[in-house]
Write a structure and sequence with these properties.
Number of domains: 2
Mean pLDDT: 96
Order of helices and strands: EEHHHEHHEHHEHEEEHEHH
Strand order of the largest sheet: 3-4-5-6-9
Number of helices: 11
Low-confidence stretches: none
Largest sheet: 5 strands, parallel
Structural class: alpha/beta
Helix content: 40-55%
Shape: globular
Radius of gyration: 20 Å
Length: 355
């Protein structure tokens, strides 16, 4: 075994650590998650397993044959099309060809598509165009095709939307006014999410991905849950995936509830249960990365949360494995050494159903 191990920091910087330093960070990371979430830390055997994943001298690591899992995504094929500032390759091809390449060259399990803006509010006005685009793509693909959008409650506040801006009201001490603004905006968001998903369902949409749910706090998450519950009634054959924005639901409202449960402060193992109640088919926890901590610290923390989430879940759990979440450094093009180690650990130790 080498006397030093090449790892990454949470910002992507490549450094070397001694075996003892790696083990110390693994222990500190799992303990941090256990304390914050009030959940069990990783066992000594699991920490040793995670250490071996980091100590593997190969640049790319993988699970053993038979341990492979299904992958879903939030428009990953778009990487081929978007420009380099967005982490893409800027190939001279359209989104349609990118989806086909993702299916036929990358051999993806599912494919995701969505509008370039990837937020619900602007999609509503062009839904007929998106329906036509989805139908065309679905006729050319064999694997399940999931349409994704971010709920993005923030776009419903002034100056982008019609409702008073809660972020401006709260610093002024206008707490009740801010809460009311969030409640009204959440009602509009739920209506728009249901409208867009229903329209896509009418042209045979296989699945709808509520990506980055809760990005604007507990009211954002509540709107998503209500939309999921409504869609399960009117679009029962469409799979619904809820991918979170953070490991912790921010209490920008603070008192908003779903089915009598306060949403603010929920961690992944609590989020998955409320998503189940709403009718979600797949849940995607997002465990934030600290840019100033090492990937062993960050990944141990992520695996601890995911392991507990899977343990209590009755639906498949697909952790978000991308830039800045679940042990992957916060860089636009995540390094393959970190991505594969995160993926292997989440599957083998966290027991994730997919990624």
């Amino acid at each position: 075994m080498s006397d030093h191990i090449l790892i990454r920091m949470g910002d992507g910087e490549r450094i070397s650590m001694s075996p003892d330093e790696v083990k110390e960070d693994l222990l500190a990371g799992t303990q941090d998650a256990a304390e914050m979430g009030e959940i069990p830390p990783l066992t000594s055997d699991e920490c040793e397993h995670l250490y071996e994943i980091f100590a593997d001298p190969n640049r790319i690591v993988s699970v053993s044959p038979g341990e492979e899992v299904i992958t879903t995504d939030d428009g990953a094929s778009g990487i081929m099309v978007v420009d380099q500032p967005d982490g893409g390759t800027a190939l001279p091809m359209g989104y349609f060809n990118a989806v086909l390449a993702f299916e036929r060259i990358c051999c993806a399990d599912t494919a995701g598509m969505g509008h370039y803006d990837y937020s619900c509010k602007p999609i509503k006005s062009i839904i007929n165009y998106e329906k036509q685009r989805y139908y065309m793509y679905s006729q050319a693909t064999t694997i399940p095709l999931i349409y994704g959008t971010q709920p993005n409650l923030g776009l419903y506040f002034q100056p982008d939307g019609p409702f008073p801006n809660a972020a401006e009201l709260i610093p002024q001490g206008k707490i009740e006014e801010a809460r009311r603004a969030q409640e009204m905006a959440a009602e509009a968001l739920t209506e728009d999410l249901v409208f867009c998903a229903k329209e896509l369902y009418d042209v045979g949409c296989d699945g709808f991905n509520f990506d980055t749910s809760g990005s604007a706090g507990d009211a954002d998450f509540c709107a998503t849950l209500k939309a999921v519950a409504e869609l399960k009634k009117i679009a029962p054959d469409m799979a619904l995936e809820v991918g979170m924005a953070s490991e912790f639901v921010l209490g920008l409202h603070g008192e908003i509830e779903y089915n009598g449960k306060r949403l603010a402060g929920m961690f992944p193992h609590e989020q998955v249960k409320i998503a189940e109640e709403a009718g979600a088919d797949i849940f995607g926890p997002a465990i934030n990365v600290s840019a100033t901590e090492s990937t062993p610290w960050n990944l141990a923390r992520a695996v601890t949360f995911v392991k507990e989430t899977v343990a209590v879940a009755n639906i498949p759990v697909h952790p978000n494995v991308g830039m800045g979440v679940c042990g992957v450094p916060m860089v636009e093009v995540p390094p393959i050494d970190s991505v594969t180690r995160s993926s292997k650990a989440l599957v083998q130790i966290g027991k994730a159903d997919g990624l």
